[in-house]
Amino acid sequence: MKVRVGIAGVGNCASVLVQGLRYYSGRRRDGLWHPTVAGLEPSDIQVVAAFDIDGSKVGLDLSEAIFAKPNVARRYIDVPPSGVTVSKGVANGDVAPHLAQRDVVSGKRSDVVDTLRESRADILLNLISSGSDGSSEEYAAAALEAGCSFVNCTPSLLLRKKRLTSSFVRKRLALVGDDLMSQFGGTVFHKGLLNLMVKRGVKVSRSYQLDVGGGSETFNTIEERIKMAKREVKTSSVASEVPYKFETVAGTTDYVDYMGNERTSYFWVEGSSFLNSGISVDVYLRSSDGANAGNILFDVLRATHWSVKKGRLRNIADICGYGFKSPPSPVHFEEAYGRFIDLFVT
User: Fold this and answer.
1) Omega before 70 within 30 of 0, i.e. cis
2) Are residues 165 and 306 in the same domain?
3) Rounded to two decimals, what is the model's pTM?
4) With CB atoms counted within 10 Å of each terminal CB, which end of the chain scores lower, N or C?
5) What is the residue range of 79's domain?
6) Are 254 and 267 within 8 A, CB to CB?
7) Which residues contact 308 (CB under 8 A, 6 or more apart)?
């Protein structure tokens, strides 16, 4: 059973995903979290279509486009020609800030639909820039029309749109999201830290998470409108980990170009325990954005495809809880992980 994937947005995350598929196409297992998910190996994932609106990438073979500027993700391995040419994507009036000075070439939704059908894609993976809500909806509509499931890795809150979710259900397709949660990124680290403190009887009163990074995603997120929307999603995800109200803020604070695809997250948590004695934690985490997403994308794509093919769409909520910051229903990350493992790994 092959998982035939179309990619919307050939940016840094797509670059690392494609490199990872090549790297794990044989017997390599180093760094791979779950070698088998729903009976599928990484080699069962095949990219069959790709879309972008950056004129410097459109028309290139995917193996070249993933390393084209403004991508700054690390070149882990060389990728041979894929035979997949990057097609024109769609832009619904919300071109990302990092593309403001670039040659933007937007196509029609109908062209995306035709390409998805011709490539026989099973899933359209949405990796476009944060803040492009209208474009995310266009891609979702294209997937629906083409008969593809849709995995939304952006903070556009598509699963809250009842008409859209109902349309996917009627066609027995999966709508999965929203806002991908990295394997060991800032959000899950913050949630895990809070979870541990609560379980050890610490009364958490305040916390913050401040992210600094390079790459186009961070550059886009420092635009005020996008920053506040992203902050709301991340803060809500973090707050759901504590069973009472407390003060917390989580979001991107600045862009540093020479950091490339790397990110540093700063955390501070304040609480109290016996005799109201104070406890505080002040730490930072350094990680690579693209690589941090790789294992989660592998898992989500395989689990989603298997669930659709087996007619088990009730599993989609558990996939959302496992891999995303804003699932349909809030869930503690440990509980979400346990459900995912029970359904797809053990």
Assistant:
1) yes
2) yes
3) 0.95
4) C
5) 3-181+291-345
6) no
7) 122, 149, 172, 173, 174
